[in-house]
């Protein structure tokens, strides 16, 4: 997280830590973790932890280890042999089914899925929150969970990021309506290692603060500018269908 | 050894008998015979009551006669001067002389012969109940037609036993009814009905059996025996028992015993089998179909449990069962009862619990709750479940389906506060 600050897991109890690759995910149910497709691409048995602010090995002993039963990558995700050459992050969403149910508590609880009404269409200016153990301005990986608030901006903001590094040509990347662009003016952004984590917005229909997952950390042209998030609302039907067809007790 | 005849002579006969002698003869003829003892000569000193010299004839300790003096025949064609006949087969003759004879007496000459005894007439007690037939050396009894001679060979009875009545309704009468019943008989009848029926007896009013003696004992009697119960003995003019005798048994033995005397018209009875009743038992929690004031053998009832109760057979619960009135007056399946439905301990649910209900019987209420604030009840409804008649805990909305506690989403336990940078 760029431009963020230390956060307790109690503030982002849905945050799931992926050890390899170093990434994030969002707990959406007792048996399901939502993440980015590129996180689990080529890794059908990701090891995950929930409920820990710190991801030092010693602290992970106290966290809940989540064992994958099966990984469902969105069928629209384009598989590639050389992931480093990927320029198409469309449909960057995946579900990980867990072997055992997650025990909920103050440090572990799921994030809501967006409703199907238009009220859950993320709009430019909506302020969301991200979290993760990804790269910061100072470190390649964070040991302490970081959180940040950042607004949704027009997709064009992401498209117009001026490249600082010669090897990133933003214009050559694919932008679709399945992506949300968000970023703070003060360099608030997600970064490498935050992938798959939730971009949450406050539920417009709840008086008490309640959040839903509007996006998943997907990719970005350059950390500290704007980032692209998978627009979860576009995948609610796929998510629900996948979960129903593979719920425990179903063959 | 018994002999058929013999001679007895006084000492020295026909010479004078000596003084101071006493001699006895024990005469015995074969059994069944009497003795004819006759004297052809008697010449014994005469004295008052034959106190000095005498010949004494005794039988069984009883003196049959005592002779003295001189006797002559009253019948010129017969040599017999004195004779005795006894119906017994033993006789004792004793001759005695004292010391004072001054004259010459020649004594006596006597002969005996076995004679036939007419046992039918010679004795005071009648040896046969009906017909007596004498023959030489004995007698035999015989009976009128339809009578038979008992094993004692003296008494006649009627062969009236052995009848077994199996019809549900029937009539039985004493032998010869309404004419006089036979004496000296024992009639045993049996009424044998199917199990499950009790025999009820009604004796006709014209009952006429030799009345009881002064001690209240019936010389002739009618007795009913049913299992361990006995009704009677009954006797007298007019039936002294109840109008209807409910024996409580499907087997009845009727015994009619008569003695040698005192005959009467006898009796006649009607019997019928009455199905054994089964008690109508307490119907708490249940309804009997069909509803009757009285249930009897072979009746079948369906016992349906009222709502909220059930009958448990083994591990299976049902709402009704059938019961049959049995031959012993008891209901089958009597061990089965309608009992309040017990829903048992409410099933546990994940991430929630059911409060312990005060009771788990029909109508009791329990409430499920989820582990708040991290889980909530997914389904609508209060979480209240009531023990229903089918043995399940039932919710108004979900029915018997258990509530589901699902995670609360999107609510951090601590809000994220961004630190100012």
**What gross morphology of chain B would you assign?**
rod-shaped
Number of strands of chain B: 38
Largest sheet of chain A: 7 strands, antiparallel
* Uncertain segments of chain B: none
The Cα radius of gyration of chain A reads: 17 Å
Q: Largest chain interface and its two residue counts?
A: A-B, 37 and 20 residues
Helix content percent band of chain A: under 10%
Give me the count of strands of chain A: 13
Total helices of chain A: the number is 4
- Taken from the alpha-carbon principal axes, the silhouette of chain A is globular
Strand count, sense and closure of the main sheet of chain B?
5 strands, antiparallel
Strand content of chain B: 35-45%
Mean of all residue-level pLDDT scores of chain B: 89
Helix content of chain B: under 10%
* Computed Rg of chain B: 51 Å
What structural category arises from helix and sheet content of chain A? mainly beta
Low-confidence stretches of chain A: none
Number of distinct helices of chain B: 0
The fraction of residues in strands of chain A falls at 25-35%
- Return the string of H and E elements of chain A: EEEEHEHEEEEHEEEEH
Ends of chain A: how far apart?
40 Å
Features:
heterodimer, A: 251 residues, mainly beta, seven-stranded antiparallel beta sheet, six-stranded antiparallel β-barrel, globular, B: 421 residues, rod-shaped
Describe this entry's structure for a reader.
The complex is a heterodimer of chains A (251) and B (421). Chain A has 251 residues and is mainly beta. Chain A has helices at residues 37-40, 57-60, 155-159, 236-245, and strands at 5-6, 15-18, 23-29, 32-35, 47-50, 64-73, 94-98, 127-132, 146-153, 179-182, 198-202, 211-219, 227-231. In chain A, strand 3 (23-29) and strand 4 form a beta hairpin. In chain A, the strands form 2 sheets. In chain A, strands 1, 8, 9, 10, 11, 12 and 13 form a 7-stranded antiparallel β-sheet that branches. A 6-stranded antiparallel β-barrel of chain A has the order 2-3-4-7-6-5. Chain A contains 4 helices and 13 strands. The radius of gyration of chain A is 17 Å and the shape is globular. In chain A, 9% of the residues lie in helices and 29% in strands. The longest helix of chain A is centred in the C-terminal third of the chain and has 10 residues, at 236-245. Chain B has 421 residues and is mainly β. Helices cover 0% and strands 43% of the residues of chain B. Chain B has strands spanning 5-9, 22-28, 33-44, 54-59, 62-67, 69-70, 82-86, 90-96, 107-116, 131-135, 138-142, 147-149, 156-158, 164-165, 169-173, 186-192, 197-203, 208-209, 221-226, 229-234, 236-237, 245-246, 251-257, 268-275, 277-278, 286-289, 295-296, 300-305, 309-313, 316-318, 320-324, 339-340, 352-354, 365-370, 375-377, 384-387, 393-394, 405-407. Chain B is rod-shaped. The A-B interface holds A 3-8, 10-14, 28-30, 101-102, 104-107, 109-113, 129, 131, 147-149, 200, 203, 208-212 and B 350-351, 371, 374-375, 406-419, 421.
């Amino acid at each position: 997280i760029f431009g963020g600050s230390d956060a307790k897991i109690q503030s982002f109890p849905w945050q799931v830590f992926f050890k390899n690759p170093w990434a994030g995910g969002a707990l959406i149910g007792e048996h399901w973790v939502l993440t980015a497709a590129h996180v689990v691409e080529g890794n059908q048995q990701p090891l995950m932890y929930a409920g820990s602010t710190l991801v030092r090995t010693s602290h992970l002993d106290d966290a809940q280890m989540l064992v994958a039963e099966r990984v469902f990558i969105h069928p629209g995700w384009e598989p590639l042999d050389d992931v480093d050459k990927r320029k198409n992050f469309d449909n960057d969403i995946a579900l990980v089914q867990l072997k055992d149910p997650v025990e909920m508590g103050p440090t572990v609880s799921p994030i809501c899925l967006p409703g199907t009404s238009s009220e859950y269409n993320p709009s430019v200016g909506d302020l969301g929150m991200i979290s993760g153990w990804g790269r910061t301005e100072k470190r390649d990986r964070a040991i302490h969970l970081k959180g940040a608030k950042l607004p949704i901006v027009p997709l064009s903001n992401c498209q117009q990021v001026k490249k600082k590094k010669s090897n990133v040509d933003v214009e050559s990347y694919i932008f679709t309506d399945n992506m949300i662009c968000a970023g703070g003016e003060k360099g608030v952004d997600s970064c490498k290692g935050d992938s798959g984590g939730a971009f949450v917005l406050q539920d417009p229909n709840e008086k008490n603060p309640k959040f839903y997952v509007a996006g998943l950390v997907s990719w970005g042209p350059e950390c500290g500018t704007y980032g692209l998030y998978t627009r979860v609302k576009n995948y609610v039907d796929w998510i629900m269908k996948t979960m129903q067809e593979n719920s425990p007790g179903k063959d | 050894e018994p002999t058929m005849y013999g001679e007895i002579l006084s000492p020295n006969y026909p010479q004078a008998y000596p003084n101071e002698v006493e001699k006895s003869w024990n005469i015995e003829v074969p059994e069944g015979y009497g003795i004819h003892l006759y004297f052809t000569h008697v010449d014994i000193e005469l004295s008052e009551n034959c106190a000095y010299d005498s010949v004494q004839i005794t039988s069984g300790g009883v003196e049959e006669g005592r002779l003295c003096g001189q006797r002559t025949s009253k019948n010129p064609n017969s040599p017999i001067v004195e004779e005795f006949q006894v119906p017994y087969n033993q006789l004792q003759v004793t001759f005695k002389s004292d010391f004072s004879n001054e004259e010459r007496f020649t004594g006596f000459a006597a002969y005996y012969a076995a004679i036939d005894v007419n046992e039918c007439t010679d004795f005071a007690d009648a040896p046969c109940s009906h017909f007596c037939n004498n023959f030489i050396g004995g007698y035999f009894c015989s009976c009128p037609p339809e009578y038979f001679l008992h094993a004692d060979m003296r008494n006649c009875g009627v062969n009236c036993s052995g009848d077994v009545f199996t019809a549900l309704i029937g009539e039985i009468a004493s032998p010869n009814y309404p004419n006089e019943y036979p004496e000296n008989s024992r009639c045993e009848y049996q009424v044998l009905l199917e199990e499950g029926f009790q025999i009820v007896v009604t004796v006709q009013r014209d009952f006429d059996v030799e009345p009881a003696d002064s001690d209240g004992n019936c010389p002739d009697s009618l007795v009913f025996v049913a299992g361990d119960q006995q009704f009677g003995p009954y006797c007298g003019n007019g039936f002294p028992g109840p109008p209807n005798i409910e024996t409580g048994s499907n087997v009845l033995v009727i015994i009619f015993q008569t003695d040698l005397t005192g005959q009467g018209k006898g009796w006649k009875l009607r019997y019928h089998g009455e199905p054994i009743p089964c008690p109508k038992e307490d119907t708490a929690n249940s309804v009997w179909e069909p509803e009757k004031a009285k249930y009897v053998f072979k009746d079948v009832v369906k016992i349906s449990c009222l709502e909220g109760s059930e009958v448990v057979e083994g591990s299976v619960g049902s709402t009704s069962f059938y019961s049959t009135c049995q031959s012993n007056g008891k209901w089958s399946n009597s061990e089965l009862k309608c009992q309040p439905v017990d829903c048992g301990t409410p099933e546990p649910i994940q991430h929630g619990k059911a409060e312990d209900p005060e009771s788990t019987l029909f109508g009791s209420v329990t409430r499920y709750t989820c582990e708040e604030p991290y889980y909530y009840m997914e389904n609508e409804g209060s979480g209240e479940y009531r023990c229903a008649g089918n043995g399940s805990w039932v919710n108004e909305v979900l029915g018997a389906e258990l509530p589901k506690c699902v995670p609360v989403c999107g609510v951090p336990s601590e809000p994220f506060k961004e630190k100012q940078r």
